[in-house]
Structures are given as C-alpha cells and as structure tokens.
Amino acid sequence: MNIALLTAAGSGTRMGQDIPKQFMNIDDCPVIIYTMQAFQNHPQIDAIAVVCLEGWEMVLKAYASQYGITKLKWIFPGGDSGFQSIRNGLLGLREKGGGDDEIVIIHDGVRPLVSDDIISNNIKVCQKYGYAVTGLLCKEVIMEYHADDETLSYIDTPRERLCRTQTPHTYHLGSILAAQEDALRQGLGGSKTAAMCQMIGQIGINDQHLVLGSEKNGLKLTNVEDIELFKALRHVSKAPWLK
C-alpha cells in the first residue's frame, strides 16, 4: 500500500488565530482538507492517515465526511514534538497491520499545494532507492545567522550543493521505524529533529534521494502572510503562452 501520513497536530501559535491553522477556513474550505484532497485524488494513494491535535479528532472526521475524503482510514494522536507526532503515526500504522514494505508518504498538513507529480515522483523514487525527500536546490546565497548579535557569516558551501527541503518525505514503514529507533538510542528525536530527512541524516544515512519540489509546494502556512499567498496561488493559472 501507499499511505499518506499527514501531520496536523500543531497548535499553530505563530499564526496567532483562535483556532489551529490546519482547521482554518480559507475560501470556505479547511486547510487540512485542501491537503487531504491532493492525496484523495491521486490514483496511487491507497489510504490516508492523519496525526491530529488532541480534541480536534471529531472535527477532522466531520470535515472528511463533508468533503468526501473516503481514503481517510486512521486518525492518530499527536505528540509533544514533530518527531513524536510522526512516530505516533508510524507506530499506529504498524499496530493497524502495516508491513515493512508499505510506502509511507509523510507530509505537512499545512502544506496544501503539493502536486500530483510530486506525490508520484516520491513514490517512484522510494520504490527505487528506499528514501525520497522533496526539495529545491538553492538559488539564493545562504549565510549563517547569529542570533546573539544579529550578524551574518559566510558559509563555505556553494549554493549549488545546498537543498531547501520540503515535504513529502517518503520511506518504507519498516525502514523509517528502524531509523527512529536508532535515533532514540543515540539520544536524538527531540524537537529539533521533526523532519525525518534530518533525523535520518543525523544517524549517518546519507543516500537519501531528491525529488524536485516546487515554490508552490514550498508554501507552508505558518503566519498570516502565508494565507494571502495561498489564496493568490490558488486562483492563478499558467499563462497560455508559457512553455
């Protein structure tokens, strides 16, 4: 099976609104539903699981029913960190009978502009190599920021070798669970290792393969400005003269 595991367990404090950002309505549709629809409509996705913020499970079920998200099979509780939330979802899939070879596409619930091509390529690359990480090569000059005195310093890595990661991150269920267990043995797995690709790199696995993302998919709804960008991107279409 190809299973989409969506994270929707954050409280969204940086958004500064009265409800969590994943449940906010934008153009009369909840953010989490936009994200779920991308996987619902993809022919290679067999099931959807969501790691949900405590107390919002019934809201999620109601939205899924209202908007016809028939592939939603499981809702798992969130954790105290991104790492733990994803681990809860992965362990939940295992408890529901998920085998080692199941492909799990881990995606931010508040990254609603993921495309069919990105999902398809994640599955294809994971099938071939075992790991798939969505990202874009850097166009900008990257410098290191020092918060203590608000200065910047030079990084001796050419930008052509730097990648801005997005989600999905895609793995076989057995391998990502084993990697998490290895990370925990090494004292990792805290709040700074929410991204699975980061965690896997920290335990010494350096052969993850890139799936090219997009600037649209790079939009993760974090603050109010992101909502305006999302609304604009939803209603824009490619000019017919562009190749």
UniProtKB/TrEMBL annotation:
PROSITE patterns: ISPD (PS01295)
GO CC aspect terms: cytosol
GO biological process, one term: isoprenoid biosynthetic process
GO terms, molecular function: cytidylyltransferase activity
CDD domains: CDP-ME_synthetase
Transmembrane segments: none
Listed InterPro entries: IspD/TarI, ISPD_synthase_CS, Nucleotide-diphossugar_trans
A Pfam match: IspD
Keywords carried by this UniProt record: Nucleotidyltransferase, Transferase
Presence of the UniProt keyword Chloroplast in the record: no
Keyword Transferase: yes
Protein name: 2-C-methyl-D-erythritol 4-phosphate cytidylyltransferase
